[in-house]
Amino acid sequence: MNNDELQKIVEEISIAIFKKPFEHQITFNPRLQTTGGRYLLVSHNIEINPKYYQHHGFEELEGIIKHELCHYHLHLAGQGYQHRDKDFKQLSQQIGAPRHCTSLGGKNYRYMYKCKACEQRYYRVRRMNLSRYTCGRCHGKLKMIELNQTITIK
Question: Distance between CA atoms of 26 and 95, rounded to whole angstroms?
């Protein structure tokens, strides 16, 4: 799916569900990492993370579009458009927009650190300087256990 097809889908969803037109741009932004989409307050444009469509399909994309359109239409109407606002919560519940996206998967960790006293485990992508850090639970000393392969924790 390209940006033109995405634009057409969003315009159709906006008319069908909100009974209002979507008059700005929506694009795929592959640089988004931790979110399914975002509504830009100044330009009123919407950006969508293409990984969610690739991994979870059209249903997940449709949920993200509904969520972002809630922000869009409420902001233009001068109502509460933020996640914490009552207007946003009511509208998103009415139309069935999800509050959060489905996870894309976990991070790949290369190092595991284990407390010598309480055996609490810490997984990290990067190495840590063990002389600077202690266990967050009991303040004991940490030891590094290098993993032979990267592991994914969801």
Answer: 20
pLDDT in tens, 51-64: 999 988 999 999 99
User: What is the residue-wise DSSP string for 36-87?
Assistant: SEEE-TTT--EEE-HHHHHHH-HHHHHHHHHHHHHHHHHHHHTS--STTSHH
Query: Which residue numbers are catalytic?
Result: 68
The reported pLDDT for the residue numbered 6 is: 96
Q: Please say whether the beta carbons of 120 and 77 come within 8 A.
A: no
* Residue 99 DSSP class: S
Q: What angle do CA 122, 128, 132 make, to 5 degrees?
A: 105
* pTM to 2 decimal places: 0.71
Amino acid at 55: H
pLDDT score for 101: 85
